[in-house]
Amino acid sequence: MTNNPRSGQVAPHASFVVVANRLAVERTTDADGQPGWRTSPGGLVTALEPIMKAKEGAWVGWHGSPDEILEPFAHDGIEMVPIPLAADEVAEFYEGMSNATLWPLYHDSVAFPEYHREWWDAYVKVNQRFAEAAAEVAEKDGTVWVQDYQLQLVPQMLRGMRPDLKIGFFLHIPFPPQELFNQLPWRKEILEGLTGADIVGFQVPGAAANFLRLIRDRLGLETKRGEFVRADGTRGRAAAYPISIDANAFQDLASQPDTLARAQQIRDDLDAEIVFLGVDRLDYTKGLRQRIRAFGELFQSGQLDPDKAVFLQIATPSRERVDEYRKLRDDIELLVGRINGDMGRIGRSPINYLHSGYPRQEMAALYRAADVMVVTPLRDGMNLVAKEYVACRGTGDGALVLSEFAGAARELKQAWQVNPYDINGMKQTILDAANASVTEKRRRMRTLRRQVFTNDINHWAEAFLSDLGVGVADK
Ligand code: ADQ
Fold it and tell me: Which numbered atom of ligand 1 lies nearest the CA of 381?
C-alpha cells in the first residue's frame, strides 16, 4: 500500500480539520441491504458538528475496514477523509502500539505494557499518513485539531510540513508521571511529536504538569506557567480542558415518556428494591474485577440481600482481538458465574451481567432505573458515564459512587468517592451511598448537576478552541 493513495487529488480547502483515529461515521446497511454511513454517536462529533459545518470542516480518520481504500466523501455537510490501514497495520499500529503499549502505560501500567520495535515502526508510518492527509486538506492558515494517544506524532509532523497551520492536540486518556513514562523506548520521539502542537490539552491539570516536567527534563525545553519554548524559539501551551457531555441532550432523552416507561420496565424486570448499576467498556482499567468482588462479598455477608438488591453490570465489548481483553472477559464471566452460582436461586441472580452495546436511549433508561451508579475505574482520563448518570437524574435523586482515580473526580466532588483498590473501603462506601437519606442524596445531586450542566461539551470545545485562537463566535 502506498503511503498516501490520494496524493495530489485533493486541493487544500478546509479551514477546520479534525484528525482522529476513527472517522466520525460508521457503516450501516439498510433494509434492502444497501450500504451507507451514519454519524457515530458520541460527544466529540456532536460538539464539533456546528463548527465543522460552518467552517468547511473536514474529518480525517480510519473508516474501520482493513485493506480498503476509500475516496473522500461528504456526510451531513462534513467532508470525511478516510485513511486506509492495511491488516498488519491494524495489528501493529492499533492493537499493538496504541492498545497494548501506550494504553496500559498511560493508565498506571495496570496491565503490563509490551514494547515491540515493529509496532513502533508501524506507529510512525501510520502517523505520517494521517499527518500528510491533514496537510493536504487544510487550507492556508487553517486549524487542525488532532485527537488522542494513537496520533501523538502528528502535531510535529504536521508543523514540519505546514508551519502556517494552527495545531491543537487533545489527549483523552491520562498522561503518566515520568517514573512510568520513562520506560517508553520512544519517549523522546513522543514528547517531540506532542510539542508540535500550539495547545496540548489534557483532561486534568496533573497530566499537563507531568507533560511539562517531562519536556523540561527530557527535551531541555524552557517551560513557564504552562508555556513551553521550542528549539526554534516558537511557543506552545499545555493545559487542562476536562471533557464533558451534551448534558441537555441526555436530560431531554431521559425525561421522554418512552424512556421513562422503559426505565420502569427495567425496574419491573429486575424486581428489586434497590438497583446498583455499572456501565463500562470491558477494559481492565475500569476496575471491574474489584467491583464485582466487592458486590460478591456484600451479597455473601448478607450486607446486601440478594432477594432485595441487584447489581446490573453492562460491559460493552471492546478490543476483542487484544489478548489482555480476552483474558479479562474470561475472568469477569468466571467471577460473575461463581457469585451467582453460590448466591442465586432459581429465577434470581444477584449480579445481572450483560455483554453488549446499547442505543443512547436505552442507556438513558438504565441511568433512570438505577438507584446507585457505581463507577470505579483504577485509572480513567475522565469517565463520561459518571457525567451521563448525573445528567439523567432530572428528579434530583440517585447516588453516584466514583473512583478518585477518574479524571471526573476532580469535578464531581459531591459523589461518594472511593479508592477502588481498597475493597473493604469500597464496600462500605457503596452501602453508605445506598443508605443515605433522600435529603442527602438530593443535596449532593444538586451540586453535581450544576457542575455537569455548567461545564458541558460545548463549554469544553469552546474553551479549547478559543485558546487556540479559533473564532468560536463566528462558528
Ligand atoms: P472510554 O474509556 O470509552 O473513553 P467513557 O468516558 O466512560 O470511557 O465513555 C464511554 C462512552 O461509551 C459513554 O458515552 C457511554 O455512554 C458509552 N457506553 C458505554 N457502555 C456502553 C454500552 N454498553 N452501550 C452503549 N454505549 C455505551 C475515553 C477515556 C475516558 C474519557 C473519554 C472521553 O478512557 O476517560 O472520558 O475517552 O474523552
Answer: 35
> Residue 52: which pLDDT band, with cuts at 50, 70 and 90?
confident
List, chain by chain if needed, residues with CB within 6 Å of any ligand 1 atom.
172-173, 243, 279, 281, 314, 316, 357-358, 363, 380-385, 388
Determine the pLDDT at residue 72: 95
The answer to whether domain 14-243+458-468 has CATH 3.40.50.2000 is yes
> Residue 50: which pLDDT band, with cuts at 50, 70 and 90?
confident
Answer yes or no: 116 catalytic.
no
User: pLDDT (tens digit, 9 = 90+) per residue, 370-382?
Assistant: 999 999 999 999 9
Residue whose C-alpha cell reads 464496600 in the numeric block: 427
Report, as an integer, the average pLDDT of 352-373: 96
Query: Which residue out of 198, 283, 371, 380 is catalytically annotated?
Result: 380
172 a catalytic residue? yes
Domain ranges of the chain: 14-243+458-468, 247-454
pLDDT digits (tens, 9 = 90+) for 110-137: 999 999 999 999 999 999 999 999 999 9
Q: Whose CA is nearest to atom 37 of ligand 1?
A: 172
Catalytic residue among 75, 172, 331, 459: 172
User: Distance between CA 432 and CA 428 in Å, rounded?
Assistant: 6
In angstroms, rounded to a whole number, what is the distance separating the alpha carbons of residues 368 and 349? 21
pTM over 0.70: yes
Query: In terms of C-beta density within 10 A (0-12 exposed, 13-18 middle, 19 or more buried), how is residue 330 classed?
Result: exposed
Cα(348) to centroid(ligand 1), Å: 29
Give the residue-averaged pLDDT of 321-336: 93
Residue range 247-454 forms a domain whose CATH class is: alpha beta
**What 3-state class would DSSP assign to 128?**
helix
